[in-house]
Amino acid sequence: MLAFGSPGSNNALTSSTCHTLLRELQQIWTDIGESEADRDRMLLELERECMEVYRRKVEEAANAKSRLHQSVAAKEAELATLMAALGEHTINSPIQPEKKSASLKKQLGLIMPLVDDLKAKKDERVKQFADIKAQIEKISGEISGSCNIINSLSTLNLEEHDLSTRKLSECQSHLRALQKEKSVRIQRVLDSVNEVHTMCGILGLDFAETVNNVHPSLHETSLAQYTNISDSTLEGLDQAILKLETERKVRYQKLKDVAGSLFGLWNLMDTTREERRKLSRIISVLDTSESKVVEPGALTLEVIQQVSAEVERLTKLKASRMKELVMKRRAELEDLCYKTHIQPDSSTAADKSSAMIDSGLVDPCELLANIEAQINKAKDEALSRKEIMDKIERWLSACDDENWLEDYNLDHTRYSGGRGAHINLKRAERARITVTKIPGMVDSLINRTLAWEDENQKLFLYDGVRLVSILEDYKVSRHQKEEEKKRARDQKKLQDMLLAEKESIYGSRPSPRRSNSFRKTNGYHANGNGSVTPSPRRNSVGCATPELQTPRSYAGRQNTYFKEMRRLSTAPLNFVAIAKEDTMSFSSIGGSEPESPPQG
């Protein structure tokens, strides 16, 4: 029986199709009525035709395979030749590992790109060798000092069978060594020439003459001029630079010494900015180190002579102004101590200093140096006191707010609708909040001051008075004031109780006429809105309100730096005004004329 499909084929779909066609053919033969012999004959013919088709296809495939074998072999040979020429023996053919399993087309597809890459690499390698050898010959001629550079491209004998990377690396290493040597030499020559040019400009020397002594080609400006980079040229430049650097150090030190004296005289005699500007270039030169001076003409002999002449002139002028300078620095010291509330050293007071200078008992320079040391000491102490001084300013500001608030509470028109009334109301609210913080401020200031005293092992003086003592006195006086206010409030409550008892007995209030008379006899004045304000002529509680001492009030008594005394409160206390009440003494209440009892 004829079997359709490829030999050994496992394709189920193809086998099924062949069987279907065979059954269809047998069915047609049955319908036609073909005999078994005819059927066998036609099946044999069909099988022979299929075999012919298979045989023809096999021959065509064998020829294609042979051609592919030849192509693969040729490419492998070409690949081996290129690999040997380029010296890449480490590259293995990609066909060998897959020769048993890969098809010929796949093998050819793998080797073709590699062959093409090696061809391109070979062409590039040839160009690299030609370029490297040309550069080697050129640089060798320059380093040897020869000016005749031969075009060596025509004399290169490139052996294409030796294009390996090893050979290329050797040529490249040789070229890099020559390039490095040339670059180093050229850079040394350029740096040295530039250094010589800069140094000559600074010192005011002739550059052309200096480099001519080394080699005539070093100062030529023509681009075609060949610059010598030999060892003798480099050594000559080094010697010239060393000589110029030595001269620069000598002149710089000399100028520094002279300018140091000049700056001291300027500061001592308060030379104006306009006069200093005449030598501003010298000042800018000395702001930098000796090795960084690059300004042309900065260290010429003329500049040094000019500065020396100015120092000599100011030295002669200094002798006649020493007393004036001492007095001025002492005034600066006193001003600094005044601003920082520090007691200045009395040993250098203006009158004493003047007397000592006039009598010749002390050198004015030594006295001036002593005052300078005192100024520096005062500055250092002011810096360490800064935190405490800031706290003092905040405390004094709070005391100012408290004084303002008390004056504000005494103003009977504070609730009127005049201009600025709402601003005062807001300020009063802020002041009340600030006043509540004063005790905490004082305690914090005392603790910080004590810590400062422990740290510095000395007392913290504020205008000559110990700050802790001032704060303790302030706390005591503030406590006394609070006690006075409390007694005043208690007396007011007792007066209110007596007045209420009187009204309950007699059944009516005093008439406005009699109320006014009571107020007048007791020293109070009614304001426009029915409240009463204590009269400044009489203290309602019978004793003066204690004065709250602050550093400023202490300063007013201790020294002349402060012109005014500050107190937290100097006005009489203000009582809460009630429309129906009268402030009167016990005797006035007891001696008043009773009203008629109320009618039932």
Automatic annotation (TrEMBL):
Keywords: Cytoplasm, Cytoskeleton, Microtubule, Nucleus, Phosphoprotein
Primary location class: cytoplasm
Residue ranges, compositional bias (Polar residues): 528-538
GO biological process assignments: microtubule cytoskeleton organization
Gene Ontology terms for molecular function: microtubule binding
GO cellular component terms, semicolon-separated: cytoplasm; microtubule; nucleus; spindle
Low complexity biased stretches: 508-519
Subcellular location: Cytoplasm, Cytoskeleton; Nucleus
Region (Disordered): 501-550
Keyword Cytoplasm: yes
Family: Belongs to the MAP65/ASE1 family.
Protein name: 65-kDa microtubule-associated protein 6
Organism: Anisodus tanguticus
Taxonomic lineage of the native organism: Eukaryota, Viridiplantae, Streptophyta, Embryophyta, Tracheophyta
